[in-house]
Description:
2 copies of one chain form a homodimer. The first copy, chain A, is mostly helical and 227 residues long.
Amino acid sequence: MQDLQSNIAIKINPNVYKKDPLSSDLGAKILRQGCNLIDDLGFEKFTFKKLANHIESTEASVYRYFENKHNLLAYLTMWYWSWAEYKVLLNTLNIDCPKIRLQRAMKCLTEEVIEDAEFSQVNEVKLNQIVIRESSKVYLCKTVDSDNESGFFHVYKSLVQRIANIILEIRPTFKYPHMLISTVIEGARHQRFFSDHLPRLTDVIVGEDAVTDFYLQLVQRELGIED
Amino acid sequence: MQDLQSNIAIKINPNVYKKDPLSSDLGAKILRQGCNLIDDLGFEKFTFKKLANHIESTEASVYRYFENKHNLLAYLTMWYWSWAEYKVLLNTLNIDCPKIRLQRAMKCLTEEVIEDAEFSQVNEVKLNQIVIRESSKVYLCKTVDSDNESGFFHVYKSLVQRIANIILEIRPTFKYPHMLISTVIEGARHQRFFSDHLPRLTDVIVGEDAVTDFYLQLVQRELGIED
DNA sequence: GCAAATATAATAGTATTACTATCAATTAGA
DNA sequence: TCTAATTGATAGTAATACTATTATATTTGC
């Protein structure tokens, strides 16, 4: 993926920002250090004032880029899902067999993010942690319907649709492709959180990626695909 | 269940409150109206001041019962899972076949909550909505480890363990019983949220309980149980 | 190279949030 | 009825979540 770094840019729906954070140095700092601070403090304790101090700028300047911290989190989440979709795309391109495409897509979407591709302003490992811990707060809130109309969840939905299509290619009569995929995507992140904080809710196996193993198996059994 | 209403009380771990809200009228109001207000405003916009005004009391009085709104939400969530576990218990008692016990437990944990048993101070339908939308915020936060030590998640974990035991009865070598159950429990609630707000992430089928159907099937296929 | 446009910093200010503290009034229990 | 516990009333603080204004840089277009 290295050779694509400089040429590919992830485009984010402008509704989520007031001023494009990729259009300036300060904007880039807001993304990068915003990511760091949200990871450190947790979303609830994170404020634009703290971020501004941290990057030696001012609160007012940060507000010029994002209406509020909710939208900054939405931006980061949208970026993450675009990046994930791009990974899926790269890994399934030119592969004819839909079962293998599904398997590879599942792997992309459930495996741990360890290496830091530093694809752009954002540190993918930290962003992954944020997505695990904070991203559901973007939709689990009263503004979900208007945010949805603004397109905040478009990328996520299109990612789910993309995998659902592979499933339908394998089993055209399967009734619940979207449910299955969103269950797996959300579940994988929850299980990683559980294994760090509430291990009795999961099954941790040292030296094995239990999460990927479990969800891959689950999907294959649900669709009746032999291993 | 009616005849048990007056005799059975759900006991909540005292670490979550400063003063037992079931020990006074005001406490009961805090639970009941807190539930209503959180449902109306969403957890982020909900404040103790608004609650106090709503029940014609004062902020300071509310703070006498709960350290903060996070703990009130934790209380309500704990109550919900105790209630759910009790439902599971009632529905699986005296049934020998573990497959049927599993099926009944799954049904309890995935089906829609429509009828309002008014089991106590809390309106179960509203509480169910709150659990769907807000409850993951109790653990998706920086205090999760100390909250866990205080026992905030004990009931939830014991519920998961209970069902995991049924699974192990059916398939003693199954590697991921906790993962499977927590995936189903969390997933069922997410899917209900999706079908209300982000329907492209799920598969809504009118007149059918797709959620229960899907997760029951998923579990049975994962465990290789014939329908 | 200069004017115009744009971006940022500095400062100030407001309403609300998330509490804590104190004390008086009321109620309940023994 | 006396005492203790509960609640209400009031006050106060630091932080949050913004908005507005103005001055100062910096970039860009010509």
